[in-house]
Amino acid sequence: MKAFIISDSHGWEQELKKVIDRHRKDVDILIHCGDSELHKEHNALRGVNTVKGNCDFGDDFPNDITEEVKGVKIYVTHGHLYNVKMTHVPLSYRAEEKGANIACFGHSHVAGAFVENGVVYINPGSIRLPRNRVEKTYCICDYNDTIAIVTFYDIDGNVIEDMVYRFELK
């Protein structure tokens, strides 16, 4: 199962569409972790599973979603409701409650991935306003029963070599 994960595009339209279209045919699911600042019907978000961030106004998007793709359960939220800038504990409780294999979130604009209690946690960073790195980032997670590989890319589609995470599962 391959998941494309992006977050915190903060109003960028053409840039967001270009990045998503680059990978659209190569993945099983497209995910935006919130703060798109676009409407649900926007062309850039066509076919993208999108949640509401703290900078998204209106009722276009849900606060969280859970999707199952090829037997892999993916939980998606923006993270502001779980205080992810301070701790991952509330998010981990929610992900475990949902039975997630993967938990995707944004909000902090800090790209990274880690495993806790068998759940792969992924923050794709931001394609507009990254923090802790200069690269504007998004990622793809390639997940099967025994391994998860999370590969981060810059906005131009180049692999960020020191941000390829390989997690042994089970």
From TrEMBL:
Q: Does the keyword Cell membrane apply?
A: no
State the superkingdom: Bacteria
Q: Calcineurin-like phosphoesterase domain location, by residue?
A: 1-145
| Name of the featured protein | Phosphoesterase
Q: Which family does it belong to?
A: Belongs to the metallophosphoesterase superfamily. YfcE family.
Q: Which key words tag this protein in UniProt?
A: Metal-binding
Organism (species): Halalkalibacter wakoensis JCM 9140
Q: What EC designation does it have?
A: 3.1.4.-
What EC class does the entry list? hydrolase
Molecular function GO terms recorded: hydrolase activity; metal ion binding
Q: Which Gene3D superfamilies does this entry report, sorted A to Z?
A: 3.60.21.10
Keyword Nuclease present in the record's keywords: the answer is: no
Q: Which cofactor does it need?
A: a divalent metal cation
